[in-house]
Amino acid sequence: MSFDLIALQLFTGLALGAIYVLFAIGLSLIFGMLTVVNFAHGAFYMVGAYVGLFLLSLGGNFWLCLIAVPLIVGTVGLVVERFLIRPLYGRGIDYPLLLTFGLSYVMVELIRIAFGKSGYPFDTPEILQGAVNIGVGYFPLYRLFVIGIAAAVLLGLWLFLERTSFGLIIRAGARDPQIVRVLGVNVSRVWLFVFGIGSGIAALAGLLAAPLQGVIPEMGATILAEAFVVTVVGGMGSIGGAVIAGLLVGVVVSMTSLFAPEMAKVSIFALMAVVLLVRPQGFFGRAGLMS
Amino acid sequence: MNELSQTLSQPSVASVSWFDFAKRHRAILASIFVLVFPLVMPFTALAVNILIYGLYALGFNLLFGYLGLLSFGHAALFGTGSYLCGIAIVHFGLPWYLAIVVGIVGGAVMAAAIGALAIRTRGIYFAMVTMALSQCVFYLFYQAVDWTGGENGLRGINVRTIDVLGFKFDFINPLTRYYVVAVFVIMALFMLSRILASPFGAVIEAIRENEARARASGYDVTRTRLITFILSGAFCGLAGALMALHLSIVPIEILHIETSGMVVMMSLLGGMGTFFGPFVGAAVFLLLENLVSIWTVHWQLIVGAVFVVCVLFFPAGIWGTILKWVNK
Amino acid sequence: MAKKTTGSISRRRLLTTASAGAVLAASPFRINLLQAQEATIKVGFPVPLTGPYGTEAQDQVRAAEVAIAEFNEAGGLNGRKAELLVRDDKLNPGEAATRTLELIEKEKVNFIVGSLSASVQLAVNNVTKERKIIYNSISQSDEINEVKDFSKYTFHEALTPHLTAGAVGRYAFPKFGKKVAFLTADYAYGHEMVRGFQEAGKAFGVESLVDIRHPLGTTDFSALLPRIQALKPDILVISNFGRDQQIALKQATDFGMKKSMKIVAPILLYTGRIAAGAQAFEGVIGGTSYYWGIEDKVASAKAFNDRFRKMHGGKVPSDYGALGYAGVKTLLMGAKAAGTTDTDKVIEAVEALKYDYYKGPEYYRKCDHQAVQSVLIIESKSKPEKGDADVFNVLATEEPSEKNLRTCEALGHKS
């Protein structure tokens, strides 16, 4: 097993991780701010891919989709938060979880009705096809692009949270909604937008994943379970944790694929079990948040 | 005390005494219902499924409804019971009654193992840890192809006759199969009713209501949790074992995350924390799925929507809402 | 009730009628109804209408309706009409077993035909053989033929992975080279296909470079592909099914692997190719039990396609769909030959059938009731030429022969 192969596998893991990160970051954001465990997050991811497919069939191009898909699905997220999740605040953590669980059934089935059951191909955009030499071997150009987009989104999100006054409110609201409310800020509006942003980014992840694997209505279910691992390992509610854990999970999957492909799937759950035993709150989770 | 204060605050004595009677003899009333149940169902195999999933949900509810711990990994307990019962018959040629015992013990042991790791975590972490561990259990059984049949599932759990005290019953006959399963489910109902009425049951509810106070009163909270989890595992293991006998196969899907999610849906739909809620939930869920899937292939849409409506408008669940209404 | 089997009826209507039947049967009128129905021959048909193989399952139902319609138009069995009872097995063996119990215990079906995945067919088979009901499986598996699962009530109309993998190997090894890498779904079906390739490869001195096994339901093969690329094989064999296959081919294309090696798959699905698009499948070679395009050469295929088109709005049958037709047809023709629905007599009659219903001559081998049939070697076209359904070129046909199957002894049968 050569060094080049291992290095190449590492890159593969990072590209894989980039999708996990984008997906998990919304999950983590929503949990951190709203304490909602969003079981419909996978459905938003899937809907993102289908909206992209639909826009392309109308004659749109991929670049336009990169902007339009998060906006459209983010708007759906706003509606879901406003009318379905908001009535449940204060009723304990189980209810939003169960509601989004049921909602994901509905969303998947609606997509099946609209687009059929068997899924569609999703061609890689023309100019991103092919592979480039990255020094250790050839690597698909599109996957490099995915890594790039993920980095850009993270940077944007970070700037938004750290440098804008709205970002400040979000961070404050996550720490202590009571105080923020007392200070006269409309917390429910902040939560509304956080949910919208989270679902928008999930949709973007779905769109980016589509050229890698095609689209089917069930595509959100698999990644949801894996993304839970990412958020738990990184620490529920921690954005930095989601980033590091997402990349870590990507690399772990990719490396086990190299040495013991049969174990690729179980490896991440084993990783999670180990992390939880050693550090129950995850890498960056705040202890006591969940009690 | 609780019952006394309830009675005092109720003006309509007649209806209360009727209700109290029903409540006191809930296990007996349930048994009568269980006896006539298959006659009103669309088909007997569905009635058996409802019994078994009802028992599974009952075992889950012991943890979720009475102790307040949301587990997303109960498929591991249900599935272990099912697989071990099946393996006992297929690979070791054990008689059916011993195989059921193996299933119950299997569910309890698996619960002890998962519980030992997970019981210290709380809330959403508990849900996540149980989910992750049950995924590991899934792969464990999935990889043990020689024992479990892997992806193809375990076949050949063929029990043709059930012999009790010299009587032989034809287990292929659907109604006989139903009543054999029903006997076990009724026994489980009585057991559970006794457990909840015992001092141990009172501790369980005390922990749910106020953990700090229960701890201050000298109860070992962690130990109570673990024991409850193991009891839950035993009930789910029994349900799994009965499933293996009923279907004569164990599919690997029994360990899927959906099997864990389904029991949560059932409990919530019926009303968690009520004695019969999970059973009602299982019955409504399976009947709804059965009827809607005959009518349309998009049954998941309806089931999902019903679920969303329940969470939004009937948080107490169907049975919980009925109980509230009767209590008024 | 006989109206149910006329040509234009949709599956939805069929299900609705079935549900109406379910309501009636639960009512006090059930006795009368049972007497009235005693004459019809009931064929239970559990297939995964919901879930990822819904498209294939729907096509199986359509094709089975063709078989029922043909049987009834030809006068049935001495006037006894046949009726199809479709059930959704949800691609779940537990659900399939429950549905099969319903079909047997409540509907009192005469035969069961159906399923699409190996695990579901084994579950259905376990239920039917215990109750001595004839079951014709229309899904691939080697295991159902083995003595452990087989019973005299079991028939297997679909190909076995051993047969289709062997046929593709015998075609590909002499043409493309002897250094072979395998990418395999890690479950019985995947392993069976690899075994088929390797046994066929012995005659050609084939060298297996690596057999990489991926978990079922893998959505990203990128972690596995560089390793295969580094070994520089002549042929890459992708032994998986459905969505796994579509994604693997798509990603192999993205990694530029088609430039340096030939990609073959033991089985290519018509519906899968339609769903995944031309780009991913282009140039891939594989096997299939049926492709509608053989109608130019095979008369029975032409007749079947025409009938199917007529009943289903001009659509052509898919490979798995056609199996639904053949599976139902053989049992009904067996009943007709036997002159009764008596189980043992029907089994004897079906064993004696030499039939050509849709793809050329076939018969069931005595020891394991496996349909001995041809395998088509197909290649995916880069572009459809004659309409959207024109997706494959038929490169070769391996004629039916028992010597391409696993031997009866290897399966554990005595004879």
From TrEMBL, chain B:
Q: Name one Pfam family in it.
A: BPD_transp_2
What residues form the membrane-spanning segments? 27-56, 63-90, 96-117, 124-142, 178-205, 226-250, 262-288, 300-322
Which membrane topology describes this protein?
A: Multi-pass membrane protein
| Domain of life per record | Bacteria
Would I find Disulfide bond among this entry's keywords? no
Q: Residue span of the signal peptide, if any? A: none
Q: Name one GO cellular component term.
A: plasma membrane
Write the record's keywords in alphabetical order, separated by commas.
Cell membrane, Membrane, Transmembrane, Transmembrane helix
The GO terms this record gives for MF are: branched-chain amino acid transmembrane transporter activity
Please state where this protein is localized.
Cell membrane
Q: What is its main location?
A: membrane
Q: Which CDD domains match?
A: TM_PBP1_LivM_like
| InterPro entries (alphabetical) | ABC_transp_permease, LivM-like
Q: What is this protein called?
A: Branched-chain amino acid ABC transporter permease
Species this protein is from: Afipia massiliensis
From TrEMBL, chain C:
* Pfam families linked to this entry: Peripla_BP_6 (PF13458)
Question: Which first-to-last residue range defines the signal peptide?
Answer: 1-25
UniProt keyword Transport, yes or no: yes
Domain (Leucine-binding protein): give its ranges: 40-382
Its protein name is ABC transporter substrate-binding protein
The GO annotation for biological process reads: amino acid transport
Q: Which UniProt keywords apply?
A: Amino-acid transport, Signal, Transport
- Extract the PROSITE patterns matched here: TAT (PS51318)
The similarity annotation says: Belongs to the leucine-binding protein family.
- Originating species: Afipia massiliensis
Report the PANTHER family cross-referenced here: LEUCINE-SPECIFIC-BINDING PROTEIN, PERIPLASMIC BINDING PROTEIN OF ABC TRANSPORTER FOR NATURAL AMINO ACIDS
